[in-house]
Write a structure and sequence with these properties.
13 strands, alpha+beta, 5-stranded antiparallel beta sheet, 323 residues
């Protein structure tokens, strides 16, 4: 009987040890399973990192190639139209109207877009050469990548009866009208995961429809030469900052002494302490007249003595009339 109980106790002890070992094995198996899952997750993350690195290298290479080709331009639309007034003044362009069309874009790679802007300008000019110079200057300012996509120059109806004397006086004579279309291309970096841009609208390329670009310039070389001569004789022949300079006439003189005098230039009174007209300095006066320094252009100064009723023709650099 005693042996039977000993055998039963030994069996129970063995069973407990087996159960304990089985639990330990189960726990170890679960730990191994956790390690395997963690390893797989880390492997997946590493593979994702490698794919991202590969995509980043591809994107960087695309960016580098685009930069080398010159595709990367200043694509910020803010300030696009700021240079137009100065360029128009420089090239004798007036009545300028501009339209900056909505931007079109298309994806190049994840986070990288190719964009295009279209600018349309119309206006009036005196000479076709002014329009061509203006077009080149605007294209350079608008974008180093892209350029002129269309230009039409037409002879204005006003050109038939134009008064060249009014041109010589600085009137804005619409001898020619034009329409200029420019396009610039560039790239924008939106960053990984950025939403794709909206599909670009269908655009008909320049030249695929409508009348072809054409130039209807001044009719004859004699006519063109007359216009050039009229321009050169007046304000239009000067740089933009000097086009407000006009002929100077001494209408009257009141002289009391070297520091007490009044002169009337072009109908306006000036004294020793007065602010002179633009580009003119009052050097002094005497009982016979007034002495001026006149800047006819950048750095082009003339010392001029005027007597009453005498006129200085600024653009011809000569005196006329006088008492």
């Amino acid at each position: 009987m005693r042996r039977r109980w000993l055998g039963l106790g030994l069996a129970l002890a063995c069973l407990g040890a087996a159960l304990a070992l089985s639990g330990q094995v189960a726990r170890e198996s679960a730990r191994l399973d956790d390690l395997e899952r963690s390893f797989r997750a880390q492997s997946a993350a590493l593979a994702g990192d490698r794919r991202a690195q590969a995509e980043g290298r591809d994107l960087a290479e695309a960016w580098r190639k685009a930069w080398a080709r010159g595709d990367l331009a200043d694509i910020d639309r803010r300030g696009t139209l700021d240079p137009l007034p100065d360029l128009a003044a420089r090239w004798r362009i007036f009545a300028v109207e501009s339209t900056l069309a909505p931007r079109t874009s298309r994806p190049v790679a994840e986070g990288l877009e190719s964009v295009s802007d279209t600018l349309t300008l119309s206006g009036q000019a005196l000479l076709d050469g002014d329009i061509l110079g203006f077009a080149e200057a605007v294209a350079k300012a608008f974008s180093p990548r892209g350029g002129v996509s269309g230009l039409e120059i037409r002879r204005s109806a006003e050109a038939e009866g134009i008064d060249l004397a009014s041109v010589a006086q600085g009137s804005e004579a619409a001898l020619l009208t034009f329409e200029l279309r420019l396009r610039r291309d560039g790239l924008i970096w939106r960053g990984p995961g950025a939403p794709a841009p909206d599909p670009a609208p269908d655009v008909i390329a320049d030249g695929e429809s409508g009348a072809p670009p054409r130039a209807l310039l001044l009719g004859t070389s004699r006519e063109g030469a007359a216009v050039v001569a009229a321009i050169s004789a007046g304000p239009w022949g000067r740089p933009p900052g000097w086009r407000d300079l006009r002929d100077l006439r001494l209408d009257a003189l009141l002289w009391v002494g070297p520091a007490a005098w009044t002169v009337w230039l072009n109908g306006k009174a000036y004294g020793p302490l007065s602010l002179a007209p633009p580009h003119v300095r009052l050097l002094g006066a005497s009982s016979r007249g007034v002495t001026l320094a006149v800047e006819r252009g950048p750095g082009d100064w003339r010392r001029v003595g005027l007597r009453p009723a005498q006129t200085y023709r600024v653009f011809d650099d000569r005196l006329e009339g006088g008492l």
